[in-house]
Amino acid sequence: MTFQLTNRAVKLEDVPPEDAILALGGDLIGSTDTWRKGKSFAKGKVLTLHLPRNQAPDKLPWHCRVSRHSKEDATFDEFWSKLGVNKPENERQFISAIKQIVEVKHISQTQSIWSYCYTYPPPVSPRIFTVLLTTHLNNTTPRTGTIVSIPIDLSQDHELAKLEGKGTKGRYVAVERIVELENGEVEWRMATSGTPGGMIPSFITESSMPGQIAADVTQFLGWLPTTRDRTATNT
Fold it and tell me: Above pLDDT 70, what percent of the chain?
């Protein structure tokens, strides 16, 4: 069976090699320029796009956001140090819905399995998302960082499954690309497909997705200066 990026969970024994995951991620994120344009957020700073399920290879809906940033927002090195390195720990600091993270298995410096616990306003119960996180930094011009998250099914590995959080299991797949542009700006692009699991109607999830993924940009840019302040204090 040919592997493809999808929000359907993958068993550990079916995970393809790291370079294959990155190649698929590159192809997917490169295709997003052709997706349908959607709403813009943050006073036009964040553009969203979507790929309807009838056009997607996996027949599931996909969403994308794109934003460009000056050095005053963040440099390429700052983006990569916070998103390509220790990503789950950093996301927990600026995404308020993330309440707990667990490194289920460390595979290498560029690949590991993480379990996230997201909480939502009542009556929605906590959701657990377990993903294989793969990162790659290409230092040739233009410098490009790639982050691919694919949903992992640990049900056949009882020891690893014990490390997952308790709650309804959701699933998501995501590809992020950070590119240093010629003018010194940075493009941050992310494409994702997911389901929160449980009984939440899909139309509610899909209609709220553009705003949710756009909010990650705003939250990141609000959080990043606090890390600069800590660095300055420590020096």
Answer: 97
